[in-house]
Amino acid sequence: MPSTVSSRTQSPSLRQSPAAPSGVTVASGDSLSKLARRLGVSMEALVAANVARYPTLATNPGAIKVGWQLEVPGQGPASQAPTTPSAPSAGWAASAGRTQQAQQTGSAARPSDFGARLAAGGAQAIDLRMRQHLDSIEKTGVGVYYGDHSAMKNMSAQERADWAKQNAKPGATPPSTFKESSCIGWALENVGAAYAAAGKTERWNEILRTVAAKGSKGTDLAKELQKDGWQAIYWNPDAKNPNDGNAEHSFSAVQVKRGNGYYGVKVDDSILDYRPTDPSKTRQNLSGIEKLEQVPFFFGLAKGGMHTFVGRQGKVNEFHWDRMPNSTTAIDERPLKDWGWNSGLIMVPPGTWPTS
Q: Cα 77 vs. chain centroid, distance in angstroms?
């Protein structure tokens, strides 16, 4: 059985000090680290408590703004916070492990501490890894990732070194080692980083062993994540009229609607009809896309797990397995609403899916 995931982590100093402030307003000269020290909590806990309301904390925790109302971990909402939150439009379902218990703060629910840490860690992982690869290409002409279906896969160490020298910018020293990846490899690397950021490395190792033993399929990863409270969101740009004419997409939409799930994964919500093949037959609905744009990090799969990816704030982030280290498109990112695949599943960390 999976290890139990805690839904809330409180600082000992806060548990012993009931008079601690429930929230704090960011003032000129404040930084997140200064506020964390003043409040007696960790910077990571402060990010986790507020990333749902201020999603930019997931990728750039140093860029807080004057006037922000920050919740103190373990306490209630900020006393001067506005009635309507700036990120979610209504509420967030908070869940951990196999529980689906909403944590109410005022008129809206907040994500569990576990879910917020996953979201922040995953979003940061994507950003750091993309930056590492693209910065290396910009500086040397050669990046650090290559696809497991590219020509580099079968090169010897010497051949790789020779290739790097030949493709490097004049006078630049290219990387001496490279990282092999694929669509599922990229997904596992970033979801694993999210679990590490949430302090659940042991649980992640358990997930990794289980998924690898079953053939490293996206559907198996989705099932393991669901055990930890991740929510499954079915997506389909036109549920009745797929633009590729493949009946699988409309069939899977019917199965989800009937409550039969998606390839063995129970579905919690859907993103449907955001890109109609024929607007006269299907009315466009962007409500699901608008929800996904509020999710800081997610894992996804397309066409029953044929392709896997991660993403953030409505954008799919995928790795192309045939690219060489000098490819600036080895790691590609684009909005789901413009993406070419026609149906699949997105797994969002506990409590990060807007409930209305």
A: 25
